[in-house]
Specification:
Length: 359
């Protein structure tokens, strides 16, 4: 079983450098090879909101690898279907980090792709992720409205073009996430668990847990993250699926943890609140993209409306006649449709309020 290096605190740069030094991470870079840093920039949001990887994780990685003689370092990412990557990178403060260190940032939405053989068939993956000497996975440990949690394995979805991201939702998410993780198999993962939102992947209700950890097996690190969040294996099945596809081992024990310092006061993890499950109990979802679903969840949460409304969402409703409220262009066949691909949370909220007040 791989070792998991763990550190507590709030200084992401300093914590990252200490983790990389402890694990001698430079030994994973092939001679003369490049390093591609893959953070989580799902939306345009500051890391303090609990959605995106802290810029200090990036600067820590860049400083460490540069100090160890690595010259070819880049940052690669493609935000979710509903947002622009460059807007998201500025909102997270990555522009300042990249400028300060003279490191290029590549928007994977504009990258070339090539098909990769996986357990669920060929998946189109961006070339910059495939061609990196060392792909460094830098996820945030947080909740997700469809897969309950997201961390190392699911963060790799940002290495796909938007079309393939949509296809993942059409395939039901669990199997393709696992298959992609097994195919890409990143050899270095640094998890930002300083203040992830344990309910919403797009952030807004961060929980200060003041922890980071590093390992070389994305499956193991996700299994560990799932345990930290108090979730059961059945709640996040893509982890064991990734193991069955050859992506790594979900086994871990306390003996595998190398603690670099003592836990801080804020290090305990409350379980996800179950808010998302309660809000979406009556929603009919069929192959809904994350951005679309998140807009709906956010609107249900902020308005408190939607009770008794028949709501449909997802690619599975394309071309079908639907009663009630449809969310997104895929549900054009609904009596009342919120247009957009994806629609914003504000648009959905207005539609819910209009229905609630009979406007
Ligand atoms: S409308 Fe929503 S579910 Fe349909 S493709 Fe667009 S984002 Fe995905």
């Amino acid at each position: 079983m791989g070792k998991i290096y763990q550190i507590y605190g709030q200084d992401a740069h300093d914590m990252t450098v200490k983790l990389l030094n402890a694990a001698n991470a430079v030994s994973l870079v092939p001679s003369g090879g490049s390093v591609a840093l893959k953070p989580n920039l799902v939306i345009a949001g500051a890391p303090e909101s609990g959605a995106t990887t802290h810029p200090g994780v990036l600067s820590g990685c860049i400083a460490y690898f540069r100090d160890h003689g690595v010259k070819d370092i880049s940052v690669i990412e493609g935000s979710w279907v509903g947002d622009e990557t460059m807007r998201a990178m500025r909102a997270a403060g990555y522009d300042k980090v990249c400028d300060a260190y003279g490191v290029p940032f590549y928007d994977l939405k504009k990258d070339r792709t090539r098909p990769v053989k996986t357990a669920v068939g060929p998946i189109d993956v961006c070339c910059r992720a495939l061609d990196a000497g060392l792909l460094v996975d830098l996820p945030v440990l947080k909740g997700h409205c469809q897969t309950v949690m997201t961390c190392a394995l699911k963060n790799l979805k940002g290495c796909l073009p938007d079309k393939e991201k949509r296809h993942f939702h059409a395939m039901g998410l669990q199997k393709p996430i696992a298959a992609l993780g097994a195919a890409l198999k990143p050899r270095l993962i640094v998890v930002d668990s300083i203040c992830g939102d344990l309910d919403f992947e797009e952030g807004g209700t961060p929980v200060q847990t003041n922890r980071m950890y590093l390992g070389t097996d994305a499956v193991q690190l996700d299994a560990y993250g799932r345990a930290l969040m108090g979730l059961n294996p059945e709640e996040v099945p893509y982890i064991e699926l990734a193991e069955s596809y050859g992506g790594g081992s979900a086994a871990w024990s306390e003996r595998d943890i190398i603690a670099l310092n003592k836990p801080s006061d804020a290090a305990a993890y409350p379980r996800p609140s179950g808010t998302v499950a309660a809000l979406t109990r009556h929603v009919q979802a069929d192959q809904a993209c994350s951005a679309c679903y998140a807009s709906l969840v956010r609107a249900l949460h902020t308005t408190g409306c939607g009770k008794g409304v028949r709501i449909s969402i997802g690619q599975g409703f394309r071309g079908k006649a639907i009663d009630g409220l449809g969310i997104g262009n895929c549900c054009r066949g609904a009596a009342n449709c919120v247009r957009g691909c994806p629609p914003t949370a504000d648009q959905v909220a207005r539609a819910l309020e209009d229905m609630a007040w009979g406007r």
